[in-house]
Design goal:
The protein is mainly α and 110 residues long. The protein is built from three helices and two strands; from the N terminus they run H-H-E-E-H.
Length: 110
């Protein structure tokens, strides 16, 4: 049976990869389609907030990925624990980015 601590770390690592992928895709889509979707957009600052949030989210998801890669202890076959502050910051900033885009879209479509 596999160690539950190792399994949790694998799931967390996969979560970090997915958040980084979604943030990267969101950033690329915003840059590619913003001028095509909105001719004269209002509240442009929300797009700037969203882009900054997604870029920070990418950085905050990559850092723990590198830490996880380096924190495996082969003697105990477990990962060394690290704090959840970065995880909470990453999740909060990601949500702020999504909310910014939703508000921007609603403001410009309505």
């Amino acid at each position: 049976m596999e160690n539950t601590g190792v399994e949790k770390v694998k799931l967390f690592y996969d979560y970090l990869k997915q958040v980084a992928a979604v943030s990267t895709g969101s950033t690329l889509l915003i840059v590619a389609f913003l001028e095509k979707l909105f001719i004269n957009p209002r509240w442009k600052w929300l797009v700037v907030v969203a882009l900054i949030c997604f870029i920070v989210t990418i950085a905050l998801s990559l850092i723990p990925q590198f830490v996880l890669l380096d924190s495996f202890d082969p003697e105990t076959e477990q990962y060394q624990p690290f704090g959840a502050i970065g995880f909470l910051a990453m999740s909060g900033i990601f949500i702020i980015g999504i909310v910014s885009l939703v508000v921007f879209g609603l403001r410009n479509f309505l």
